[in-house]
Every structure is written in structure tokens, then in C-alpha cells.
Amino acid sequence: MNKLPRSRTVTICPLYPYRPHARANPPVTAVSQRQEARSHENRTKGRSKHQSVLKSRKTPVTAGFQRQEARPHENRTKGRSKHQSVLKSSGNAKVNKTKIEWADATWNPVTGCTPISEGCTNCYAERMSHRLAGRFGYHTFDPFRVTVHHERFEEPLRWKKPRRIFVCSMGDFFHANISTAVIDALLEIMVACPQHTFMVLTKRAENIEPKLYEVTLDNPCRELGGGDYLPNLWLGVTVENQKRADERLPYLLRCPAKVRFVSIEPMLGPVDLEKLHGIDHVICGGETGPGARLMQVEWARELRDQCNDFGVPFFFKKMGGGRPTPKDLEIRQWPGDAK
Ligand code: SF4
Q1: Which DSSP string do the residues of 41-95 spell out, in sequence order?
Q2: N or C end of the chain, less CB within 10 A?
Q3: Which atom of ligand 1 approaches the CA of 202 most closely?
Q4: What's the pLDDT tens digit per position in 242-257?
């Protein structure tokens, strides 16, 4: 796999993906995030939100769901922009708090999935969806099928306090059954919420590039948020062992992102990070819940040491299986923390 050269300059070239990306891999600090937000504002000044997210995509964005919802919405919101109308109608916004250690909230505009690899055997999302069958928008007889919940799209707009938001914790954002129109609509919400960080994690790494950039002969390049990535979107892949890391990480490394992260959870075998140059954050944890497969503590320690050697921030969640975390693994670093 060719490694893309890194450059601070945003260069949009019609030969995408064979172009330098805006990818300087700086440590993420509050100051750099503010700077990013400001430069993003400057880049997108004078363009509509629609234009800035999808500058080069030819298909009308969100056409599918917008057509369905447009009429009743139009009547209620005449004379207001989309953003204003959301804020006005939001009232007290309920935040979807989460026990996931590396996120402040979850946002599930799409739920449901299909198992894809050994890491899915004891899928928490599948288990939960069966518990919730027939309620909260989950289908009664097939609760884990991929379902788009339009009514949840605007939730982050109502959360004023900046949050780290895990997107699609109850499914896979890049599942084949999630259309690019839906993904575009969600990207627009992210653009409208620069105060939040959206963390998207997938096992379908091969779908990231086509679904984000929809590279085709007719549409060879596309800008996100005025550049080639959204400053508040972190892209990550989940891997459970070396085999899946070798398969999935090269796809992630092709894509520009403010932060590219890997979640090794549930860790089902040792993972060598040597080949993984270009990763900005590593999260690791053992499996939890019924039938949990035990992670060996040595695998986690080796990973911690590799991260230390490469200066990659390491975040250890838990051992799983009800086992306590060894003292030397009580590490919760974020991009910008690692020396
Ligand atoms: S990809 Fe994730 S959400 Fe989908 S079945 Fe596997 S573990 Fe569950």
C-alpha cells in the first residue's frame, strides 16, 4: 500500500486519491482545535453549509430523507434556516450519556449491523437491540437490522457543551446498507457542531473512502468542510487481532483525518503496531459481558510498549471478564498527551 505524503497545505487535485493530503499530524490541543475551527470558518465563508460539506459531489445531498421530511417541516419553519429551526425547537436537550470510557456521549442516528468478523461474536449492540426490540425505534422482529432514525439526526445540535461523541455505537457507520445520502446528512450535522468531536469507528474500513469521498470516474474528488477532512471528525477502525489489523488499517491510513485512531477491542490476540505508522491514538480493552473471551495481559503490555516507542497515545479501557486493571496499565492518554 502506498503511503500518502503528508503536507500541511490543503491541495485538492482532480486525481484524488493520488494527491498529497492535508495531514500534518499535529498534537491535538485546545489551541490547535480553536485554530482549526477558525481556519475552517475562513475557508467556508460565503458558502452555504451544503456547499462546504459536499463541494464536489454531484448527487443532491440528503435528497432521500429531505424529500420525505420536507413538507411538514417547511410549514413549521417558514422563514428560518435549518440550523435556526433546530435550535429553536430543541428545548432542554437530553444527552445520551455513555459508560464508554473514551466518549462523553453517543449519537445513534443509525442502528443495526451484520456481524463481519470474529470480533462480532459477542456484539454488545446486537444484544442490546434484542432487549430493546419493539421500542425506541428498534424493529420488533428484526431489531438489529440497519435502521435510519431521522428523528435523531439533530441531537448534537442541541448539546451546547463540547463533547466527544461516539457516532453509531449501536451499529457501523460505514455499513454497506447506509447510503451516502444519509452519511452526507450526518456530515452536515457535524459541520454545524464545531464544538463537538465526532468519533467514528468501523470494522468496514474498505468503505470509508468510497462512502466519504464517493470517488468515481464522474466525481474524482470531493472536499469535506472546505478541505479534505472535517476538523472535528476523528476516523477510527476496530481490529481484534493481527489479521484484522493488517486488513483494515491500510484503508484507514489512506484517508485524511484530523485524528486516525485504532480500537483494539475486544483484544483477541497480540497486535504488532510496527507497520502502523500514521496512527494517532490507540485504544485497547478486553471483552466484557456474557461469554467474554479473555485478553492476555501481556498482549496489552506489548501494545502499550509499542505505543510508547512510537509516541502514540495509549488508552487502556479495562481487562474484561471482571478482572481488575493492573497498575501498570492504568493509562488513559489522548492525542497531545504522549511525549
Ligand atoms: S461490526 Fe460492530 S456493531 Fe456490527 S456486528 Fe460487529 S461488533 Fe456489532
Answers
A1: HHHHTTS-HHHHHTSS--SPTTHHHHHHHHHHHHHHHTTS-HHHHHHHHH-SPPP
A2: C
A3: 1
A4: 999 999 999 999 999 9
Peptide bond into 162 cis (omega under 30): no
Distance of CA 164 to the CA centre of its chain: 10
* Residue at 112: amino acid letter: G
Q: Which of 180, 194, 158 is nearest to 110 (CA)?
A: 180
| Neighbouring C-beta atoms of residue 9, cutoff 10 Å | 8
CB count in 10 Å sphere of residue 130: 12
pLDDT for residue 3 is more than 80: no
> For ligand 1, is residue 60 a contact (CB within 6 Å)?
no
Q: Is the peptide bond before 20 cis (omega within 30 degrees of 0)?
A: no
Which pLDDT score is estimated for 222?
A: 72
Per-domain residue ranges of the chain:
36-75+87-195+202-223
Is residue 205 within 6 Å of ligand 1 at its C-beta? no
Cα–Cα dist 78/80, whole Å: 6
291 Rama class: left (phi>0) / alpha (psi -120 to 50) / beta: left
In testing the pocket of ligand 1, which one of 100, 106, 110, 116 has its CB within 8 Å of the most ligand atoms? 116
Cα–ligand 1 centroid distance for 204 (angstroms): 10
What is the pTM (predicted TM-score) of this model? 0.75
Ligand 1 proximity of 203 Cβ (cutoff 6 Å): yes
Q: Is the distance from the beta carbon of residue 116 to the nearest atom of ligand 1 less than 6 Å?
A: yes
Rounded-to-integer distance, Cα 233 and Cα 255, Å:
12
